[in-house]
Each structure stands twice: as structure tokens, then as C-alpha cells.
Amino acid sequence: MQDAERLQDELRQRVVRTSAPIALPRTVTGLDVTYETGSDRAVAAAVVVDVASLAVAEVAIHRGLADFPYVPGLLAFREVPLLVAAVEKLATPPALLVCDGYGLAHPKRFGLASHLGVVLDLPSYGVAKTAFVGAFTPPAEARGSHADLTDDGEVIGSVVRTQTAVKPVFVSAGHRIGLADCISLTLRLSGRYRIPEPTRQADIESRKILREWQ
User: What are the required cofactors (predicted)?
Assistant: First the structure.
């Protein structure tokens, strides 16, 4: 664990924090991993979604073994090798990554989205269903409402209402993208559902392949 923590600290120094707006990408790649209960077998999915239509453009799957134990705060060491393997199977290199997890909204300010973004040197951010660290005041009930997620006086993310009167999601920048763009993209990518389409589809695909594998 000490080696992982040391590497985490080294990689964290390479995170590019920015507030400068980015050009709207044509596609976004959503990422998720599903694990077999009681086993180290896992399926990672990388799903490319067209930003304009929210249609799935490509799916890449990697089946493998998670060779790092589950440790809170070090989840990236369990998932990044699987996710990188899936991303490398895509026919077209991704323009931007969105993860089911955290970026700066992490005790070390280096969650899965940050770790993966640094490793692949791609803009990346995280959208999580629950908060890991930080405090917030719930945003208003209307779709598009959002509130700061803060920790030790620092804004580490945003609590975003993607659907009216539905639980918010927790958005945080990972690497080479600002929080404002993360919020805007999350809303643009959330059509009829609470979860943005890229990670929603990655969850669907990884679960489907795991069922077939079993």
C-alpha cells in the first residue's frame, strides 16, 4: 500500500488544473467497471457517445482480473489497468473521458478520473452517484441547478441536478478540464436519465458482458 500511495503522490503532481474553457468535443467516452461478486473477475467498458445525439458510436470491452485489492482512496489502482485496456481497444482515440467516480473530489485530490486522465494524458472528469468527501448545500430542485462541493475551504466539485426533483450527481474535474465545462457537459450528456449517457451506457455494457462471461 505504501508503494501505491507513493506513486499516487507522484502522479498527482502531473494533474493539470485549469479554468480555461475547452472546445466542445464531438464525442465523449464513458468508462465503468463491473465486478463479479466474490471474485476478482471484472469487465471494463469504454463507450463512445456522440455529444449531439447521445447515440452510442462505439463500444470496447476488456475482461480481466483486478489484481489490486479494494482500498478506499486507492480505487484507481484496481480499475485503471482494466480501463486503459478497454480504451486501447477503441478504433478512434477518445477526445474526453468521463468516469463513474471522482476527480479532485478525493481526499488526496486525485481520484479515478484524475489518475486515468494523467496516465492517458486526456481531458477527464468524474460523475459519481454519492459524495466521497466534502460538504454541500443541496441544489435547487430544477434541472441544471448546482451547488459547490467543498472540503477544507476548497471547491473540489459540484453537486448537479441533472433531472428535476431527482437526486443530484457529484461532478469533479479530473485532468485538463475546468469544473464549469464538467458541469455543462454533464447536463448536456444527461438526456432522460440522472446519470450521463456515456457512463450509463458503460455500466449497461459492462454488466451485460459480465453476465455472458458468467
Answer: Mg(2+)
